[in-house]
Task: inverse folding
């Protein structure tokens, strides 16, 4: 074990440290985290509407929430919340992204957010057009339609308009454009700021004004560079905006790849491996967990709001960020709540039982530091196999249950401290089968843990040491 | 006394905290038991000492990805 730790510290940790400490990746992680107030508020709105509008018709024939006083008003209020949050989640992210990049470089954060937002929005289509053909309209109808500003003939109607920002360009679909264009524009802005290519005002000018003026040249250059790129792109790819092209060629294939069983298992496995060696797995893997699976989740949440679970099943993603929480990370990463139960039932070691007792409370809310460090699991060779294996098995159960339609995909964003069964129930839009899938995953994990807990009984500390270990553990109970 | 539980980079943590001396707070490495490192400190507020130690480790280039625990021991 010492050799392995030394090897890890020499070769692997520097790499993990570089990834985890890479300022752009930290900014990306913080940008996602920064959107949480909006995305969680939007998720609450979607969930409330699911409970008040979408789910009751399944149980009560003829139920229509939109026709019931008070319920109708609550649904409408939730709609407003959704409009300002998840419907424009990409727009909120792009500001957060630019803000955090600028912050990482120590330049005016507000201008960073503005540059990122402006540059990304610049490439979105502002117009729409659509039409119906094969009609047989009379002259009076054609005249009335044309008078209303549309274009009609006796055979068809064409509607076109300008000045519209389509919501499907500002929601989860916007993330990849934002990540690329927002990054390039903000980096141009940042570099020019750092080179001090700015307008300098006298000291007598208030700081807010002088800071804004200082950003003018860098921001203008950044936006012009991006605008020229959009222009050139439109010449080469006239039928698509950059966002549409990126969606088609990068985002959708990447999100598609994330839906493969191998990708899901690999992510689950690596997170566990990192945790085991005392490295913050989700932090290191945040670009994948949040940047790919998180985006897929927002897409599902939006689909649920627009068309309920049917639309999620039709157009959504099977496995998203919250799926890990729902089916594998119950009690914390590694599904450690199951280990706590196994310890309480089968462990004969006083020290292990004490740790388990101390870990139950936090474990119910998916906080597992007490057991990770108290048992410990970190760098404990005996725990290596079950700690790695159980989430992989649990993920597989959740994955195939979702794939085979035994449970609805995760379509709600639920805070990770929600207790396990409630979490999967809420995350799937109140699908009663989800807690059952979680339970099955837990039972299988439980069976995996049992032999290792029993084996640990045979490695109990010597008499006398036991009480000392327990005394230490009780001291350790309070962590910061 | 405070306890730092960390699986890796224990030597770096010991060196970092042993050499830390800011705002009148100092740490002295006492012993190592498995993944746990024990430090004594010159301030009475152990909660604060544990919190400072955690923050100092987190700020290191190698500390941002560490999964560790910093606890006061009464």
Result:
């Amino acid at each position: 074990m010492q050799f392995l730790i030394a090897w890890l510290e020499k070769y692997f940790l520097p790499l993990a440290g570089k990834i985890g400490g890479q300022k752009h990746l930290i900014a990306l992680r913080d940008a996602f985290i920064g959107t949480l107030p909006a995305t969680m508020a939007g998720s609450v709105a979607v969930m409330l509407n699911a409970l008040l509008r979408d789910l009751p018709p399944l149980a009560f024939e003829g139920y229509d929430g939109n026709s019931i006083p008070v319920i109708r008003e609550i649904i409408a209020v939730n709609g407003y919340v959704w409009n300002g949050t998840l419907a424009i989640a990409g727009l909120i992210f792009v500001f957060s992204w630019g803000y955090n990049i600028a912050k990482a470089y120590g330049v005016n954060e507000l201008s960073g957010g503005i540059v990122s937002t402006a540059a990304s929005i610049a490439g979105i289509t502002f117009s729409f057009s659509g039409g119906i053909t094969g009609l047989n309209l009379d002259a009076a109808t054609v005249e009335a339609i044309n008078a209303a500003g549309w274009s009609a003939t006796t055979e068809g109607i064409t509607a076109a308009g300008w000045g519209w920002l389509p919501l499907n360009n500002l929601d989860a679909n916007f993330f990849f454009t934002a990540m690329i264009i927002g990054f390039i524009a903000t980096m141009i802005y940042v570099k020019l700021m750092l080179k001090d290519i700015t307008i300098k005002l006298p000291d007598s000018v208030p700081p807010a004004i002088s800071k804004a003026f200082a950003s003018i040249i860098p921001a203008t250059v950044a936006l012009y560079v991006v605008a020229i790129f959009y222009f050139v792109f439109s010449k080469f790819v006239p039928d698509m905006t950059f966002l549409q092209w990126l969606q088609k060629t990068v985002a959708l294939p990447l999100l598609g790849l994330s839906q493969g069983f191998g990708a899901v298992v690999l992510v689950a496995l690596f997170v566990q491996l990192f945790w085991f060696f005392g490295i913050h797995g989700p932090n290191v893997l945040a670009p994948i967990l949040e940047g790919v699976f998180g985006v897929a989740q927002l897409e599902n949440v939006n689909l649920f709001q627009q068309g309920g679970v049917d639309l999620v099943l039709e157009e959504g993603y099977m496995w998203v960020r919250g799926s890990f929480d729902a089916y594998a990370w119950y009690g914390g990463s590694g599904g450690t709540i199951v280990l706590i139960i196994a310890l309480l039932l089968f462990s004969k070691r006083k020290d292990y039982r004490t740790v388990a007792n101390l870990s139950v409370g936090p474990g119910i809310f998916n906080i597992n530091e007490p057991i990770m460090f108290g048992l410990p699991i970190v760098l404990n060779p005996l725990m290596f196999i079950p700690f790695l294996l159980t989430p992989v098995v649990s993920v597989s159960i959740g994955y195939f249950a979702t794939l085979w339609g035994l449970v609805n995909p995760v379509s709600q964003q639920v805070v990770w401290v929600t207790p396990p069964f409630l979490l999967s129930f809420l995350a799937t839009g109140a699908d009663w089968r989800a807690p059952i899938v979680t339970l099955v995953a837990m039972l299988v994990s439980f069976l995996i843990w049992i032999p290792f807990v029993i084996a640990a009984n045979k490695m109990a500390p010597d008499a006398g040491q036991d009480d000392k270990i327990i005394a230490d553990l009780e001291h350790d109970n309070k962590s910061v | 006394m405070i306890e730092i539980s960390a699986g890796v980079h224990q030597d770096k943590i010991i060196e970092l905290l042993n050499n830390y001396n800011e705002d009148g707070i100092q740490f002295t490495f006492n012993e190592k038991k498995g993944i746990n490192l024990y430090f004594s400190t010159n301030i009475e507020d152990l909660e604060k000492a544990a919190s400072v130690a955690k923050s100092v480790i987190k700020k290191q280039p190698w500390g941002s990805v560490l999964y560790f625990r910093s606890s006061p021991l009464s």
In short: The interface with chain B takes residues 5, 8-9, 13-14, 16-17, 19-21, 26, 274-281, 283-284, 369, 372-373, 376, 378-379, 475-476, 478-480 of chain A (CB under 8 Å). The beta strands of chain A are 127-132, 151-152, 157-162. Chain A has a mean pLDDT of 87. The longest strand of chain A covers residues 127-132.
